[in-house]
Specification:
The chain has helices at residues 2-14, 19-34, 40-58, 63-84, 87-112, 116-123, 130-141, 145-180, 198-215, 223-240. With 241 residues, it is mostly helical.
Length: 241
């Protein structure tokens, strides 16, 4: 929640040695904690779907794959909402979500002749701990070894959970498909490469930062820096290919 992180920094900056300033900071902190989602649940759910669809386009998926990835991203978002109030589900959510997405994506890819790995990765893009990894490296660079090390290990565990879930879900799907493929050549069709018009890439490059603005609950004033950062990252990665 980048918006709350920014608000918290403002509260800390305004603190002072007097009881009045401390009390004012406490009131602002409580108000921040009790505030609803900045963009509402409906927009947030749509952003899960939009982020996954944009990711599928940008990593070379097909139109069908982008639509399926959007459905997967929406399902992941709804699952995150359910896990927020269920601690046991939250602990196993990354593994369960990645296995479920990989299973469904592999089955869909076999029928639609598209790349299941692209679909699964795009649907799970919102779960990748990129921000945690970035903050961990910043803390380690500042010699905050305890907080940086623990955050880095947390990100590593998340990556392992997602990777294991993807492998498990794909293997289960393959075991279902193998006996069905006999006499059904369309179930083992060769994946088609992404053939979307380059205009779709441009649209995805606009949709992706807007959806991440919502998913990270960043304040609206951050929209231009976020778009600029995404464009810089994409063009840099494209230039290195």
């Amino acid at each position: 929640d980048l918006g709350r992180m920014s608000d918290l920094e403002d509260i800390v900056a305004d603190l002072g040695p007097t009881p009045e300033l401390v009390a004012a900071g406490e009131r602002r902190l409580r108000a921040m904690a009790d505030a609803p989602l900045r963009y509402g649940r409906g927009v947030t759910r749509l952003s899960f779907a939009g982020a996954s669809a944009a990711a599928a386009v940008l990593i070379g998926g097909t139109a069908e794959g982008a639509l399926f990835a959007a459905a997967g991203g929406l399902a992941v978002g709804l699952g995150l909402e359910a896990a927020a109030s269920r601690p046991r589900l939250a602990r196993a959510f990354l593994l369960l979500a990645s296995a479920s997405v990989a299973f469904a994506a592999t089955l869909f890819a076999a029928v639609a002749a598209t790349d299941g790995a692209v679909i699964a990765l795009a649907a799970l893009i919102v779960l990748l701990p990129g921000l945690s990894l970035t903050l961990a490296m910043r803390e380690l660079a500042a010699r905050h070894l305890v907080s940086g090390g623990s955050r880095l290990m947390g990100a590593a565990v998340d990556f392992v959970s997602i990777g294991f879930g993807l492998a498990l879900g794909e293997r289960i799907a393959r075991s279902v498909l193998e006996p069905l493929a006999t006499g059904r050549p369309w179930l083992s069709a060769t994946p088609r490469p992404g053939t979307l018009d380059p205009a779709w890439d441009a649209a995805a490059l606009l949709v992706a930062p807007l959806t991440f603005l919502v998913l990270f609950q960043a304040p609206p004033r951050a929209v231009l820096p976020i778009i600029g950062t995404c464009l810089l990252a994409w063009t840099t990665a494209a230039a290195m290919d």
